[in-house]
Amino acid sequence: MKCPFCSHSETQVMETRVAEDGEFIRRRRQCASCEKRFTTYERADVSFPAIVKKDGRRIEYERGKVLASMKLALRKRPVSIEQVDGAIERIEEKLLNLGLRELPSTRIGEMVMRELKKLDKVAYVRFASVYRSFEDIGEFKTLVDEVRR
């Protein structure tokens, strides 16, 4: 780590602490040349793929959007927030493991549907009926029949 005061390239870590929320590590360092102390913060650099919308726009992945859509589908259903958080963590782990720079929004929608199907069948049908934009009642009936099996 380069010293911010004299630009010397050798510094020594004097103290290391994990932040209260566990999101980063705080390190106190001392320059080997000018002996001044300074603080650095280390945090994980996780980058999710860019999401490609149906109209071609590219946006950043937002956990909040996935959470909001799942909460809406799960409204008044007997599913705990811990179960929802677990589902979102599984989705995010899959996103990171794909190793892609871009991903169509439809893939995330399919991942959400899979997780909702495991959590609650009614929430799955609610989400799928909006997500798939059914044209007629026959398509909806097919989905419900699929869930019943």
**Count of individual helical segments:** 5
* Number of structural domains: 2
* Helix and strand element order: EEEEEHHEHHH
Q: Beta-strand percentage?
A: 15-25%
Strand tally: 6
State the separation between the terminal residues, measured CA to CA: 59 Å
Largest sheet: 3 strands, antiparallel
Helix content: 40-55%
Overall 3D geometry? elongated
Strand order of the largest sheet: 1-2-3
Radius of gyration equals 23 Å
Low-pLDDT ranges: none
Structural class based on helices, strands and sheet pairing: alpha+beta
Report the average pLDDT across residues.
Answer: 90
Give an account of the 3D structure:
By secondary structure, the chain is an alpha+beta fold. It has two domains: 11-42; 50-148. Helix content is 45%, strand content 19%. The strands form two sheets. The protein has a three-stranded antiparallel beta sheet with strand order 1-2-3, with no helix packed on it. It has a three-stranded mixed beta sheet with strand order 5-4-6. The longest helix has 18 residues, at 81-98. The chain starts with 10 loop residues before the first strand and ends with a helix. The mean pLDDT is 90.
Write a brief caption for the model.
With 149 residues, the protein is α+β, with helices and mostly antiparallel strands. 45% of the residues lie in helices and 19% in strands.
